[in-house]
TrEMBL record:
The keyword DNA-binding applies. It comes from the Bacteria. Keywords: DNA-binding. The keyword DNA-binding applies. This is AbrB/MazE/SpoVT family DNA-binding domain-containing protein. One of its GO terms (molecular function) is DNA binding. InterPro entries: SpoVT-AbrB_sf.
Amino acid sequence: MAQVIQIGNSKGIRIPQAIIKQTGLEHKELQFKVVPEGLLITPLQQLRQDWALQVDAALAGQSDSADTDWLDVDLTEAAQADEQQQW
């Protein structure tokens, strides 16, 4: 099992390699959460880490360019047009 060990002036947790591989924690940044049962260790979720690649891949799969015309709109001009429009 895992053990708390001395590392310099700090404490560390020595986790067996088999558990690291089984849980997919190898080469990951970890986050710790104190729960009533003890300590929960999970990989840090980096939101939107590769979202730009995913969007590009999704757009590359589309054949109709009409669906993507809105991506080329200059939002600055659109915002100014809305301000000038009288209701």
